[in-house]
């Protein structure tokens, strides 16, 4: 009898760096054991991890040091903005909007 179990997809990880001035760049990527190590290092450093198989598949095609393509700017910008908010960082022009929201809650 044939095994109908789908093949296991390799675990993968891609790390991005962002300096606030230029497009985010690929700083690490890997599969299986290397992916697990990248994730472990990120977790130990308190880096937020976003899990998205399709985004990871696309980013795996890029080379280390490559900037993300323009087609991903909006998506990555939204992720970075969300992480900043999780860390309690808000743009100055928000005029402490987050404190006003908390105060009203």
From TrEMBL:
Keyword RNA-binding included in the entry's annotation: no
Entry keyword Transport: yes
GO biological process: protein secretion
Alphabetical keyword list: Bacterial flagellum protein export, Cell projection, Cilium, Flagellum, Protein transport, Transport
One Pfam family it belongs to: Bac_export_2
GO CC annotation terms, alphabetical: plasma membrane
Function noted in UniProt: Required for formation of the rod structure in the basal body of the flagellar apparatus. Together with FliI and FliH, may constitute the export apparatus of flagellin.
Family (UniProt): Belongs to the type III secretion exporter family.
Protein name (record): Flagellar biosynthetic protein FlhB
């Amino acid at each position: 009898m044939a095994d109908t179990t789908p093949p296991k997809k390799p675990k993968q990880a891609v790390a991005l760096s962002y300096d606030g001035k230029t497009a985010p760049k690929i700083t690490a990527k890997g599969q299986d054991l290397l992916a697990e190590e990248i994730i472990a290092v990120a977790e130990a450093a308190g880096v937020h991890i976003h899990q998205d198989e399709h985004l990871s598949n696309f980013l795996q095609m890029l080379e280390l040091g490559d900037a993300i393509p323009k087609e991903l700017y909006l998506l990555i910008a939204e992720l970075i903005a969300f992480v900043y908010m999780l860390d309690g960082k808000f743009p100055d022009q928000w005029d402490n909007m987050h404190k006003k929201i908390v105060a009203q809650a």
